[in-house]
Specification:
single chain, alpha/beta, Endonuclease, Chain A, two-stranded parallel ribbon, 17 helices, about 40% helix
């Protein structure tokens, strides 16, 4: 069994219920993999250490530093954006459906998966109505994302969607022998309407963002709506993916924002910041072989740039050596580091690694909050109250090393303050991790599983 086969087993476990005996078998297999592939793990750690400049004590403000660092990596920033935070599934889909209903030209959707459930049916109903009005509707989804969720779209569902006039394509369908299907997936979540309004964040199309699930209870995640020149950047990302999935080259001025926002799309949740329309935003887009290190680069440098505070929520906290080192160094120079993780999770093994890392960082001086009221799938970081990010990238190897990901980096104190307030509110449903609480909460066997899982972080 090679490491790709091992990874296949782990991915399959994401969406299936497995017995205690099966988990033990998987644990044994992964132990065997660590014995067989130590060189690979060490090589990955060594290569990562060369990605970032040698750390120096920051002398500029964190927001200025991160902008300059990302610009050197080719990231473009514009200054004329509005960013509206959509912090619940209900907010996201209500806002999205209102915008779709007022579209006049084109609707483009790119998701890791469209789960075959009630919210997807509602989305298709809105899209089909716009097709009848002459609006171009294009959608692309990831083959692995579709196959790995517990209610995938089948060929008959896709046929029915296409019969309504909606163009929909699958990126990298799962095909035997499946070995090529594991890496470089499309994990982004983007919608662009008329080339003038865009949505991005961590939510796929699924009703559990509203209703929760039996396994984890309520499901917390977030999206944001962007209006301004960064809509054009998101449109470029979509059109490149559309070409890869469909073979069609789509271009033309009508797909891009002009000099103003559309005044005909009304009734959406407003951006209430005084900086609305003047926010500085850049899009960091991970493309294999093109910008493969950009998400890692952003997170490590954002943490290294911090002078006062870091607040972070992420569901799959497996972390790389560089990220752990950056967080430890931040604490050493007096930065208040707060991290919020979920007690519950939708997948096995990976959370154990996250809990282990959280305990280690707690001992180093980070404040760890363990969220108990459902599952937090949110992926955000706020630094010094100056800048933040909302996007699709997790802090695991899959997001940082392999998949196509995209995050909006928002250089704006008001939006960052809104996310800070969200973080503070979520702490009320959490317990603070201490050494005493750690031993009460995690059994000896669970603590061992966490230690073992952290050895596998390059595969998780």
């Amino acid at each position: 069994m090679n490491r790709i086969s091992i990874y296949l087993l782990l991915m399959k476990m994401r969406e299936t219920k497995v017995s205690y005996k099966t988990k033990n078998v998987i644990t044994a297999v992964m132990t065997f993999s660590c014995i067989l592939f130590p060189i690979q793990i060490l090589a990955q750690s060594k290569s990562e250490s060369t990605l970032f400049e040698e750390y120096k004590e920051p002398t500029e403000r964190a927001d200025s530093l991160i902008v300059n660092q990302l610009r050197r990596k080719g990231v473009h920033f514009s200054h004329n954006n509005s960013v509206t935070l959509l912090t619940t599934g209900k907010d996201k889909f209500n806002d999205l459906f209102k915008a779709i209903d007022q579209a006049r030209s084109s609707i483009h959707l790119e998701y890791f998966n469209f789960r075959n459930d009630s919210i997807n049916e509602e989305l298709i109903r809105h899209l089909a109505a716009k097709v009848k009005e002459g609006v171009e509707v294009r959608a692309v989804f990831d083959g692995f994302g579709n196959a790995s969720n517990n209610r995938p779209m089948k060929k008959r569902h896709l046929k029915a969607i296409r019969e309504k006039g909606i163009e929909i394509y699958e990126f990298k369908p799962m095909e035997f022998p499946w070995l090529h299907d594991i890496f470089n997936r499309d994990h982004r979540k983007i919608v662009i309407i008329d080339g003038k309004v865009a949505y991005t964040g961590g939510m796929n199309v699924a009703d559990y963002y509203i209703n929760g699930t039996k396994v984890v209870g309520s499901w917390h995640d977030m999206h944001c709506r962007i209006e301004g020149d960064e809509v054009n950047t998101l449109q470029n990302i979509f059109l490149r993916m559309w070409f890869l999935a469909s073979g069609q080259k789509i271009h033309g001025a009508k797909y891009y924002r002009g000099i103003s926002n559309p005044d005909y799309i009304k009734g959406l949740k407003p951006d209430t910041c005084g900086s609305a329309g003047n926010k500085m935003v850049g899009i960091i887009n991970r493309e294999p072989h093109v910008s493969k290190d950009i998400i890692r680069y952003f997170y490590v440098n954002a943490i290294n740039d911090a002078k006062d505070s870091i607040k972070l929520i992420n569901p799959y906290f497996t972390l790389s050596r560089a990220l752990k080192k950056a967080l430890r160094n931040a604490v050493k120079r007096g930065v208040k580091v707060e991290i919020l993780l979920s007690v519950k999770s939708d997948i096995p093994l990976t959370p154990n690694c996250g809990f282990y890392n959280a305990h280690q960082l707690m001992k180093e001086g980070c404040t760890i909050w363990m969220y108990e009221k459902g599952f937090h799938h949110t992926k955000i970081i706020m630094v010094d109250g100056k800048f933040c990010t909302v996007g699709s990238a997790n802090l695991n190897a899959r997001s940082l090393r392999w998949d196509r990901e995209e995050n909006a980096v928002i250089i704006d104190p008001c939006t960052t303050h809104e996310l800070d307030n969200l973080f503070e509110a979520q702490k009320k449903g959490s317990f603070k991790l201490t050494e005493t609480k750690w031993k009460q909460w995690r059994t000896s066997w669970q603590r061992f599983r966490g230690w073992f899982a952290h050895l596998l972080s390059p595969f998780l």
